[in-house]
Every structure is written in structure tokens, then in C-alpha cells.
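**Sequence, C-alpha cells**
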Amino acid sequence: NSAGKKKKYLKAALYVGDLDPDVTEDMLYKKFRPAGPLRFTRICRDPVTRSPLGYGYVNFRFPADAEWALNTMNFDLI
């Protein structure tokens, strides 16, 4: 039974706002990867036009890495 083997992930996501429309998910990954292992990055987009909405999320594997990034990289330019 695979239901008993599901991995539990702790919440370790950071909101990233005021993004330039030219910022990509790869750019977010490269910026935040030095803080620790990432699960994924996401730029939020309009569902119809697919235009970026100016914000996104960086999902870390470990909450301590997300906290470190928040404390040391807050207000950094991308």
C-alpha cells in the first residue's frame, strides 16, 4: 500500500515579489540555490495571457534554508 509510504514535506516556501517581467524561473533558481537545495521555483502567470504577474515562489527542501534565505537575501535584486 503506497498510502502509508507518502513522504511528508515541511513547508519551506518563500514568496518573491516585485519581479521584473523578464525574470525567469531559472533566474530564481540560480539566485536562491546557494541558500540550500530547492524543490522548485515558480513564477505566477495570468492563466489566459501567460504574462508574468510580478511575483513567484521559491520552494526549499529544508525550512532552515528558507529561513536563512529570508534573513540574508531579503530585498536583494534579481
Summary: The beta strands are 13-16, 38-45, 52-60. The mean pLDDT is 92. The domain at 10-73 is CATH 3.30.70.330 (Alpha-Beta Plaits).
